[in-house]
Amino acid sequence: MVKREAIQPESLCKIHYMRGRSQMFLGNYAEAITDFNPLVDLLEVVYPDDDQSESCRNFLQLAESHYMLKQWDLCVDTAYKAIRCYIDSNWGWDDDLIKVKLQYADALYAIKLKGEARENINNILESYPDNEEALKRKKEWKKGLFSF
Fold first, then answer.
1. CA angle 77-37-106, nearest 5°?
2. What is the percent of the chain where pLDDT is above 70?
3. Residue ranges of the domains in the chain?
4. Assigned CATH topology for domain 7-140
């Protein structure tokens, strides 16, 4: 048996990530979080430079896991970190960003930050005016005659 201390940080990252993804696939989101959480610090050791792609992927998985467990405050925190990775890295929009922005908006709405949630939906619709999920939320979250 190999002692944990003998395992290289890169290998630990792979182990935690693959185990976390497997747990997500099985619907075991709490167990997935248990594997993804140590990656936050590990990835900073393994990739100390400005390459945030692995950290971003980890935050995407954490946000989704918290979202599925309705852990709204934690979802807001990790989704925001994933979104910041995209902004800081100057990456373009993709399906993962849209998904995490929708999760972020839902979590904000769930913790009664409805104005911020609507603002995020509007942000999605500025770039993707036909996004069905964002349009659905916009319609459901209307308030009053002159909303949104």
1. 30
2. 91
3. 7-140
4. 1.25.40
